[in-house]
Structure formats: structure tokens, C-alpha cells
Specification:
This is CoF synthetase. The chain is of the alpha/beta class and 422 residues long. It has 2 domains: 325 residues, 3-Layer(aba) Sandwich (Rossmann fold), CATH 3.40.50; 93 residues, 2-Layer Sandwich (Alpha-Beta Plaits). Helices cover 34% and strands 25% of the residues. It has 13 helices and 20 strands. Strand 5, helix 10 and strand 6 form a beta-alpha-beta unit. Helix 1 runs parallel beside helix 7, helix 10 packs across helix 11 and helix 12 runs antiparallel to helix 13.
Length: 422
């Protein structure tokens, strides 16, 4: 029955939800928001308790977890759900549900682990929507998906159907095991975090892995421009696609031209601007009913594009996902103030130096930054230092001490190329 429930959202996402202009999209969103508001005032104890005229508050992961019991509309208790989800992760068994509801844990990159729940109906809606938006044009059936992630969930398994097969690959397993299994499975679509895609591309380059995929989709991590170009070359594809998906919903995906768009047909995004282009998204998912995602403030830094996309979509085009607010580096300013530096400026200090692809930049203190990259020559190290000194001069902060160490990739941890640790 759930496979049949996937059909309508699939058709809507692929063909029906097309808007002539922003005004038409905004009218549609307003109607959906009104329906969501009416539903929550009836079914969510938290929103039912708010005065009619009250502005609904912003939420984040801390708020969600503090009010979990009264926010959700299914009577799920946080402590029981957390115990169930932790047991699933410990046993690496993800095919059970809790009182008919799928429960999962967020990866905790922001320092806090969160619980997310989905009903069977929401799983069908998610699967139909994501397949409608992401399946290659011209071929809808017969695909074999290889899906890499830290933890499986019935939400992801809901994609499996008589016409599409999904195989889950646990990132906790050794890369050699993945290569062996992929050589046998031969997927047509490969879905994995960017760092895993790079590792698999290296296996192809070294002739350990051979497969002919029609589509490669990056998830869970920021896809760096250098990695994207490398993947396009190795997989011999014109576009490496991206899915912007998190605990808070299916927020965005790339079009046929490889341009990232917000999924404004299923989520409403308010923007908290940091400058003319950068903003934090405040998400309201008007399709999700079991666990309200209403005015949920993410600490992702999105960079909007003002240019129209060749695909013709009226959905907001995103130039890049730059990082998170807690990855903004903080340096001592020359005038005694604290200078904030966006992750993109830090990346450029590495990207402006030739032949550096695998790297990680970690700020441990305002005066100390660690550069992890393998086999850097002394000339490359000097160039990196020069780039940081130039950046410090341009932005008027005291250049930190730079230390260089070896880069080690851990597939069990979400890779952040730029990270602040204090």
C-alpha cells in the first residue's frame, strides 16, 4: 500500500508542481502553511496551548528536544524513542519501527544529537518526492541505487519497490568491503557523502573498482568544488548532483544543470541574512505532520544566487552551502576586536595553492590553526602560509600560528573540511 502512496507525490514532484512565477509559488505556499497551522493547533499539544494571536516561536535542536513530547502529534515519548534509536545504532539494525513509527538519530555535527520520527505515510511522501525530483530523465524504472550513510532507516528503505532497488551500504564497514560489494551489485545510481564518493573514485582510478553509473549524488557533506571536478572526471559525468537533506527535511536538490535549488514546494524558507548573499535558513516543512518542523532555524550558511537558472525553475537557487555558523573562524583583530571569517575564505587559502585536494583546516584557538593534508611540499606549505598572511592583512586580524599534519579520513564521521573546535 505504501508503494501506491508514493505514486501521487512522485507525479506531483516530477510533473505537476510547476509554477509560472514566484507569485504563483507564494500563493501555493500560503495555502499549505494555513493547512499546516490548522493541523498543528488540533493535533500538537504544544501548538494547541499557544494563544491564537501568538507568533509561533523559532525552534532549533535544543528546543525540539526540550519540548519533544508535547510537540509531536503521535504521543511518542523522548526517553523511550532515544533508547530505541540508540539500541538500533548500537546493534546496526535499522529495520524495526517503534509503535508503527520510524525513529532515527541525527549525526550530531552541531554538538547535539536529535531524534527524528516519520510515519509510513511520510516515508511514502518523502520517497515519492525524492524519486520524482532526482531520477534521471528518460528512465524511471529498473534503477539500482547504492546508498551510503552512517545509519540506515526505514525512511530510506521506503524507496525500495518492484521497479527500483536500493541497497544500503554502512559507512562503518571497511572501504574494501564496499568495493567488493559494488563490483558485484553494479548500481546505476550512487548516493554517498562527498568524502566516500572521493574514496570510491580513487578505487576506480586505481582499477580496484569498475562500475558504470548513470548518476552520482552527493549527500550529508559539503561538496567542495575541487572534489566535484575530480568526481566528474573519474565517473565521466557532466554533473555531480547534490541533495540537501537533514533531520529537518528534504530541503534542496540539484536540477538537470547541476544547480542547487531549495525545495520550496514542500518547505517554506525564511532567511536570516548575514550579509548581502549569505543567510541562515529558517525552515517550515508543511508536508510533515508527526514531528512539527515549524520556523526551525538551521545554522547552515547558505549563499543565494540572484541569477536565473537555465532549468527555468522559480525555486530559490543556491550558489553553495558554505558551512555552519560554528565553523566561522574567530581571530584576534588588530584593533583588539574579534574578527569573524566565513569558511569560504579559509577554503580559498588552500584552493589557491596548486595540487591540494584532500585537506582539513581546524581552528583550535584564535591563535592556532591546524592544516591536515598529505605529502605537502615545503613550497606548498609556504604558499599556504602566504595565503593566510594575505587574508589576515585584508581582513585586519593577527595571523595565527599554522601547524601542518597528516590528513586521515574517517568514513564513520561526517567530514568537515573547515571546522572550529572552540
Amino acid at each position: 500500500m505504501n508503494k501506491l502512496k508514493m505514486l501521487l507525490p512522485f507525479i506531483q514532484a516530477r510533473w505537476l508542481r510547476r509554477f509560472k512565477n514566484r507569485q504563483a509559488l507564494e500563493r501555493y505556499q500560503e495555502k499549505e502553511l494555513q493547512k499546516q497551522s490548522a493541523y498543528m493547533r488540533t493535533h500538537s499539544p504544544y501548538y494547541r496551548s499557544l494563544p491564537e494571536e501568538a507568533t509561533w516561536p523559532l525552534m532549533d535542536k535544543t528546543f525540539m528536544m526540550a519540548h519533544f513530547d508535547e510537540l509531536n502529534t503521535k504521543g511518542v515519548k523522548k526517553e523511550e524513542a532515544m533508547a530505541f534509536a540508540l539500541a538500533s545504532e548500537k546493534n546496526r539494525e535499522f529495520n524495526e519501527n517503534y509503535q508503527g513509527i520510524s525513529i532515527g538519530l541525527s549525526s550530531g555535527t552541531s554538538g547535539h544529537r536529535g531524534i527524528f520520527i516519520t510515519t509510513e505515510e511520510e516515508q511514502a511522501l518523502w520517497a515519492g518526492t525524492i524519486l520524482g525530483k532526482m531520477l534521471p530523465k528518460g528512465k524511471l524504472v529498473g534503477h539500482k541505487l547504492a546508498f551510503f550513510l552512517r545509519a540506515d532507516n526505514q525512511l530510506y528503505q521506503s524507496i525500495n519497490s518492484p521497479v527500483i532497488e536500493l541497497a544500503y551500504f554502512d559507512t562503518y564497514q571497511p572501504i574494501e568491503e564496499h568495493v567488493s560489494r559494488l563490483n558485484e551489485y553494479q548500481p546505476t545510481i550512487l548516493i554517498a557523502p562527498a568524502s566516500m564518493l572521493v574514496a570510491l573514485a580513487k578505487a576506480i582510478e586505481e582499477h580496484h573498482l569498475k562500475m558504470d553509473v548513470q548518476q552520482v549524488i552527493s549527500v550529508a557533506e559539503i561538496l567542495e568544488a575541487t572534489d566535484q571536478r575530480y568526481l566528474e572526471k573519474i565517473f565521466q559525468l557532466p554533473v555531480i548532483h547534490q541533495i540537501y537533506q537533514c533531520t529537518e527535511g528534504f530541503l534542496g536538490c540539484t536540477c538537470e544543470y547541476g544547480q542547487l535549488h531549495l525545495n520550496e514546494d514542500i518547505v517554506f524558507i525564511e532567511k536570516e541574512y548575514l550579509d548581502e548573499k549569505r543567510f541562515y535558513p529558517i525552515v517550515t516543512d508543511f508536508k510533515r505532520t508527526s514531528q512539527p518542523i515549524i520556523r526551525y532555524r538551521l545554522n547552515d550558511i547558505l549563499v543565494e544566487s540572484k541569477e536565473k537558472c537555465p532549468c527555468g525553475s522559480v525555486y530559490q537557487r543556491i550558489e553553495k552551502i558554505e558551512g555552519r555558523s560554528d565553523d566561522i573562524f574567530l581571530f584576534e583583530g588588530k584593533n583588539g576586536t574579534t574578527i569573524s571569517v566565513f569558511p569560504d575564505f579559509i577554503r580559498r587559502c588552500l584552493l589557491f595553492v596548486p595540487d591540494i585536494r584532500d585537506y582539513q583546516v581546524t581552528q583550535h584557538q584564535p591563535t592556532h590553526v591546524e592544516i591536515a593534508s598529505n605529502q605537502l611540499t615545503e613550497q606548498q606549505k609556504r604558499q599556504v602560509i602566504q595565503e593566510f598572511e594575505k587574508l589576515a592583512e585584508d581582513l585586519e586580524f593577527n595571523c595565527p600560528q599554522l601547524t601542518f599534519n597528516a590528513y586521515e579520513w574517517n568514513p564513520q564521521v561526517k567530514l568537515k573540511r573547515v571546522a572550529r573546535k572552540f
